[in-house]
């Protein structure tokens, strides 16, 4: 059985995008990107909200032939995974292996995660908040970037209190710090 994992790259002050919607400050260097790939290797399905899907869909057609090995590897992994987009406004999805769901149904998500033999990654603070409110997220993985952006889209959107157990951490030469927590269930 896979786990539902919320992963995010965030500023030290807790944002995934700044007040202008920018996130260029979150671009991982080669060392961090290679580690992200290690974390994502067990992911078979990605859940996205509309905005995160727009952000990530570039991986489908991006020409990575001349990119560093971690970028090429991530593109292969992303293209081979199943994707589910939760959006009531997106007219259609345009990437292969992608399904559009008009609303987030916690019961359906719980069944899909339980039936999966690989991990399921949930991306985007808004859709992750829906999963978290339903008590579905098993792991929280945060890459803290060495930058303060002063405002913008918060990495945690109305999340309830959860007790967490630190199961992994790592710091990188660039100043990025990785934190991996498992939710403690009663």
Q: Averaged pLDDT, please?
A: 96
Poorly predicted tracts of residues: none
Q: What string gives the helices and strands in order?
A: EEHEHHHEEHEHEEEE
Extended strand count: 10
Name of the CATH first level? Alpha Beta
Shape summary: globular
Cα radius of gyration in angstroms:
16 Å
Structural class: alpha/beta
Biggest β-sheet, characterized?
8 strands, mixed
CATH topology: Dihydrofolate Reductase, subunit A
From the N-terminal CA to the C-terminal CA, the straight-line distance is: 19 Å
Give a concise summary:
With 186 residues, the chain is α/β, with parallel strands linked by helices.
Q: How would you describe the overall organization of this protein?
A:
The two termini are 19 Å apart. Helix 1 packs parallel to helix 4 (69-80). The model has no long low-confidence stretch (mean pLDDT 96). The protein has six helices and ten strands; from the N terminus they run E-E-H-E-H-H-H-E-E-H-E-H-E-E-E-E. The chain has 186 residues and is α/β, with parallel strands linked by helices. The protein has a single domain, classed as Dihydrofolate Reductase, subunit A. The chain is globular and about 40 Å long.
